[in-house]
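Narrative progress, year one. The postdoctoral researcher (J.K.) led the effort to move from monomer predictions toward full complexes, under supervision of the PI. The following entry was the first complex the group processed end to end, covering 246 residues in total.
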Amino acid sequence: MASPDDIRAAVTRYLAAVGGGTSADVAALYADDATLEDPVGTEPKVGREAIEKFYSALDAVQNTTELLSLRVAGNSAAFHFRVVTDTGEQTVTIEPIDVMTFDDQARITSMRAFWSPEDMVVA
Amino acid sequence: MASPDDIRAAVTRYLAAVGGGTSADVAALYADDATLEDPVGTEPKVGREAIEKFYSALDAVQNTTELLSLRVAGNSAAFHFRVVTDTGEQTVTIEPIDVMTFDDQARITSMRAFWSPEDMVVA
């Protein structure tokens, strides 16, 4: 099982990639057969290809991310974070709570994002 | 499906019951066949009787709770909160992130608590 330190480092890498990386950078943090449910209640994406496609919106915008709180338990992490997206025309701020599981190499095996559209702040 | 407002109200009731109620009060918020995994990675408790027993430690201490952040998605909630436990000899503060699912009547059908012993602050 990945250690708590490995899991914390993986979350840090994830937020850095969402903030400053490409969709390929983010997808590379996932295991091949990972699942992604964002937001929770929608149909999960399965596999790294579908996951990279999900993150492809990243490639057209500027994001900054900030970790607000992180809890590690077993092979899992739950974390609250802020993502600010500058589309060029407006700034969208959202602060989801994500839950991730990790494999022995601290690759993300599942991600579930808890948020709803009403949590978005557009400026 | 329970509405977002119903789910928010259920989380509020839960924190009030953990703060000022008995183990029976807390267990009454769960569905009959609910599961509880606290912390994540431990063997889940199944059913309201086992769940009430889990919370029985509440009955010997004074707890106060405070909601720090809450996100609702689908039939689920993720929330970060503070629990301060006064055992009479010491004060233990912990700020878990919990994930819950709810049935149509906004009863808790599953609870998973993300925290680790190193997150506890003893004073």
